[in-house]
Structure formats: C-alpha cells, structure tokens
Amino acid sequence: MKNLAKSFLIYVFPILLLVLWIETGLLAVRNSYSQKKILLEQHLAEHEVLILGNSLPWHGINPGLISARAFNLSMVSQSLFYDLQFIARYTPRMPALKAVVLCVDYTSLEDDINLSPEYWRSFFYERFFGFPLESEKFAWDIMRFSLIKLYGGDETLRLARNLFRDHLDYEQLENGFAPRINPGYLTNESEARKRVNFLHTCMNSSAIPRNSAHLREIIRLLRAKGVIPVLVSLPVSSGYTLALDQKKLQKMQETIQTIATESGISYHNYMFDQRFATEDFFDADHLAVNGAIHFTNILNLEVIKPLLKTTNPD
Amino acid sequence: MLFNSTQFFLFILIVYGLYLILSHRWQNRMLLAASCIFYGAWDVRFLLLMFISITADYLCGPRIYYAKDRQTAKLFLSIALTVNLVILLFFKYCNFFVSNLTSLLSYCGLTVNPYTLDIVLPIGISFYTFQAMSYSFDLYRREVIPPARYLDYALFVTYFPQLVAGPIMKARDLLPQVLKERTVTVEKFKEGCFWILWGFFQKVYVADNLAGIVEPVFSATSPRDGLTVLLAVYAFAFQIYCDFAGYSNIAKGLGKIMGFDIITNFNLPYFATNPVEFWKRWHISLSSWLRDYLYIPLGGNRQGRLRMFRNLGLTMLIGGLWHGASWTFVLWGAYQGALLIAYRAGEPLWHKFRSLTGRLSLPSGLLYAAKLFFFFHLICLGWLVFRAQSFEQIFVMLRSILTGFLPVNQQAAWQTAAAILQFTWFLVLIEIMQYHLDDLKFILRQSPLVKAGFSYICFLLLIFYGAEGTRQFIYFQF
Hints:
The structure holds 2 protein chains of 2 kinds.
Chain A: H1 2-28, H2 32-42, E1 49-52, H3 55-60, E2 70-72, H4 80-90, E3 99-103, H5 121-129, H6 142-145, H7 147-151, H8 153-161, H9 189-201, H10 208-224, E4 228-233, H11 238-243, H12 246-263, E5 267-269, H13 289-311
Parallel strand pairs in A: 1-2, 1-3, 3-4, 4-5
Helix pairs in contact in A: 4-10, 10-12
Chain B: H1 6-21, H2 24-40, H3 45-65, H4 70-107, H5 125-140, H6 150-158, H7 171-179, H8 186-218, H9 226-257, H10 275-281, H11 284-295, H12 305-322, H13 327-345, H14 347-359, H15 364-387, H16 391-403, H17 410-437, H18 448-465
Helix pairs in contact in B: 1-2, 2-6, 3-4, 3-5, 3-6, 4-5, 6-7, 8-9, 8-17, 8-18, 9-15, 9-16, 9-17, 11-12, 12-13, 13-15
C-alpha cells in the first residue's frame, strides 16, 4: 500500500495539482459570459429595454442609440431556451423594465442544440448563470466539468503562461453590444450559401413546437409582469436571403406571425429591408458596426420609441 | 458506455471499489451485473440476444464435452455454432445478402421487390459471437471443462472490458480465469494503470485527433489531390491502429487491475516487413481465432501448396467480411489474402534475395528500413480500400495519387503533414523503444524519473490536446 501511495505521489499527484491550479485560474478569467453577467447585474434595476437573441442582435443592436436605458442580453447561438431562462431569472428583479425586443431569425424556431457544433455554449450558461442544460444529451460531456477542455489546450496554456491575467472578452461593450468592424467581409453569394448550408445542418423542423412553446412562455411571463414584448427579425444580406430555403423561411414567418397575432404583440420583419446595403454587413447575416448604427436608429424610431410612448404617454 | 466517457469513469470507480471488497463468487456476480449495465447502456434489448447465445452455448456445452461418441458431440457443436451464426448472419449480413441478391436477379432480368428489414446492428456482435463459438470449439477439442454455474459462463461471454471490441478471448484462456480465484497485487495494479494510460493516449490523443484529418478527405464529394489523399491514408493507418489498439490496451489494463490476464492484441504491427509477420502482430486475437478454428480445420498448410493458398485466401476473405457487410471489406480481405499468398508463393525468391543482399553486405538496418517502408505502403493501400465508402472512391483516390499528386495549395498539405507528426511523434518514439528492447512494458522497468516523464507527457498531451468530444471506437461497428 505504501508502495502504491508513493507511486501515486510521484506519477499522478503533480498532474492533479497542476490541473487543479489551472482549473482554479481559469475560473478567474473573464469571458463573454461572465462579463455579460457582471454588466447585466451592475445596473439591473435601471434597464428599461432588454434585447434578446443570438449573434445577429449581439452584433446588430447598439443599446447606446436607444432612447431609453437598454441592455443587449443576446449572445452567439443563444437559443429561445436561454432567452426564456434569462426572462424567468432576471425580470422579477428589473422594476424599470418596460419592453423586451425578442429577436428571431431564420434559424430560431428550428434551432436544435443536439445538432449544433456549438453545444458547448450551454456549459457556459450553466457555469456562469446557473441555467439548466438545454439538452441532457451533453450531461456527461467532459467540457461540462473542465474549463481546460472547454477553452481548449492552446488557449488554456496561453492563459496559464500569463498567470490568468488575460481575459477572453474582447468585443463586448458595457451595454452588452459587440460591434464588428470590417464591413463587406464574406458577404458574397457563395459565402452566403456556405453559411446557410451550415445553418441547415443545425436546424431541425421537429424543434419548431418546442421553440414555439419557449417563445410563448417568454411572452406570457413578460405580459404577466406588464412588460411589452416585441418580435423583430434583423436585416440580412441579399446573398443570404437568396440562399435560404423558401419553405423553411415561409414556415418560420408564418409561425412567428401566428404567435404574434395570438399574443397581441407586434412583429417587425427587417430581413428584406432595402435600406441596407452590402457595406452594412460584416458577413452574410451579421451587421457590421455602421450597419448596427443604421439599424438601431431605425429600430429605435420605428419600434422602440412608439412602444415606450404607450407605456409612458407623458 | 464508452471507455473515454465520464460515465465510464464513475462506473469503473464503483465497480472496482466493489470488486476489491467482494469474495470471488460475488465478484463474478457483480462483474456480470456490471457487464449487463455496460452493454445495456447502448441498447438494453440486445442483452436478450446475447443471453440467447449464452444460454444455447451453456446448454450444449456439457453435451459436447461429456458426449459418449464424437457424432453426438459434433451434433451439439453444430447446434451451438448454428445459434451463434444465425444471430450473427441475421443481424449483420441479412440486408447485405438480400440487396445483393436483388441486384443480381435484376441484372439477370428478373424483377423482384427487395425486402430489407430495418435491422439495427447490435454493438460488438462479431466479438462476442466469436468468443462464444470459441467455447464450443474448445469443448469439442476437450481444451476446457464446461463450467457448473450458468453465471460463470455468462461472465466469460459478457466480461465488459473486452465485450464490445475485443480482444476476442478464447475459452481456454479466459474461462479458467473466471472460475478460479484471482489475486490483485500492487504490481498488477501498476501494470494495469500503464496499459490504461497508454490505451487512452492512443485513443484520445492519437486516433481521435487524426480522425479530424481523415474524415474530411474520405467524406469529400469532389476528388482531392494525391498528396492530400496519401496523407489522409497515412493518418488513417495510425488512426485505426491507435483506435483499436487503444481499446485493446484499456481492456487489458482493466483486466489486469482485476487480476485477469487479457492477451496482447497488437504487437507493434507497423514494424512488420511481410504479411505473415503483420498478421502475427495485428489484431492477434482475431487472426489466431481464424487460424485455430478455420484455417487449420480447413487443412492449413498440411495438404500441399495449392490447398494452402486456397485456405489462406478463404480465411482472409472471411476475415474481411467479419469486419462488415460491405464489398469494400471483402475486397480488403481478398487483398490481404493475396498478399499472404504472394508472400508464401514467393518465399524461395525471398530467400535468394536475402542471400544476394547478404553477399552484397548491405547494412542490415538499411535493408530493414527499405522493407519496412515498402510493406507499410502495401498495408496503407489496404487501408485505403478498408476506409473507402465505395469501389468508385477507391478508384478516384488511387487515380489522384497516381496522376494528380501535387496540390494547388501546398501549404495546407504541409500543415496536415505537420499535424500528423504532432499527433504521432510520441507514439512512434515509444514504439521504437518497445521494438528495440523487444518489450512492450519496458517503461515499467525504467527508473522513477523516466516513468514519471512518460506519465507526465501522456497526461499532459491528453489533458491539453486530447480530442474534444467523445468519439466512438471504430471497431464497435464490427
């Protein structure tokens, strides 16, 4: 037994110590999710408008241009399931909240985490926000238990070399918005087709009832609290709209319209808006920083201002 | 449940904890229950199938061993083998035969409605049916005694470390270990840990990372340049080796820490310089199974050269088909058979060649390296056939290698080559030492400093650069 303990001390224990040190160090590293939480909770009681959705609104709506205190709570590949978790968790602690912009796009209703290569994002929601996993399929994934595996070897070693003083949240502003520069990059038709083909691999029509239920539940919770939800689809490049599967697009728009009508809320679809040119986009479906300014001004003028007027006629 | 999953980590902690505190009889019962959980985690329905095979073999066993005459023994041997073969043929080959028969009939101008069933292939079926059949054969040859307890026999078939991807243990090797009391010593525990660590390294660091190089090339819809194809084939040669040897080594290590001796399934196969040597080093449990229960009963090499060639060809064809219901596997088996036949047929020539090179006093190392290089490429050609999804893909890839070798983007090819080196350098280094010292466990005999270095490198590469996600073992589909 003594022999075994000695072997353990020599061959395994140093590795365990190293892993423990790195895992602890990585916990302190700021990432987009931990930073989002800090930024959101800093002024939680003051936010009047909340923006929810995936990377399209994250890069496409700048709350600084909205005529009320707003926060962009969207993130890359954020599904309606996590939008719902945010609403359920935070709106009871947001007394000033008046409106929530629920961004839905071509993929939102058919979004299936079981098919997504970015399923690992759910481990960040669990670790930093305490949200449940969207799919039990990944309950035993090693990335759920180890930040080393979640960040990957190269990134972990880079962070460890700098004694975990670096951070991984490069693009997020204090209002939660992540501006993207380099307009016109990857907006051509072949890139757009590639992008749409990739998105199709993560979409599943059988997910529509589940995602629709999440959307209905979000709307119900918000209305119960007296907050006005509004559904918005962001502009996308013309190459992207051409590459879309028309049947899927029609199904998505019909379902969103039905949910909007039955809930008595408005749906504003800017997907085919002619006011946006190639220069407004970073890639096929994401607005660049100038496009985001352009769009947020339109959104503020056409949707948010009139909406806020109804909540505060004075 | 995969070895490289967090579920298995918890599972083995619990199983091993219980194993250490239980008596022999209860150890066997617990291991049987654990094996059922392990297998049932994939699909609980197929446990029933496995127990049909187990029950048939168990009931036939004493009737084979204690039969008054050879005729009766043969009858019950046939019954036991038939049950296993029917299960294997139905679940693995039914649709293959029906669809090929339909194609053949339509080629002859006869139109029939193809009737194929939606059959799910039970995981590891080829492994456990072959293991079960070895029991009946060994009883018939009176090399084992039928166990008194059903549960002991069931454990022999279902023992979880080697249940779904081998090694295929023969009854004469494993059954006595099930029946007798096993001892767990510190030395066995350490050796087991070595095999487990090395197996994980082979699987998670080498094989799974190389899969990222192999898959895009073999699943590409448009033809790739020859250099990219060649690099993908090299990568696959190491991927399939480390995937399968990794599993076998983990199984061996798990067995060892419980006091079982599971055979070494891979003994540095890419150091072979001819097909006979290769098959003594690659998937040893299958090749020895085929040798003992098929090649030798067919007559082996005892009835003249022509009969030997026939037996070799037939054995390797069946070996190829064992891997899966696909013509590419049959072709791979035929290719391996052809290599063996060519080697055997040309043996007098090789001897002359050897004496000639001896007279020229060429350095033996150089000659060995040339033979190694040449034979490795023959094996790689086999891997291309094995991995391809169709004959057309084999043809397209070979054409790329022969006619369109250089890529437009040479930088990408160099990056791929660098990645292959990155994922294989440590494996190659250790294997060269294993070969040179003729000792697969030489690490265990080194100083604590060397052992610590080995352990740290394996752990660190696994932790930081082990492939992401839990990738299934390739051999589960066979």
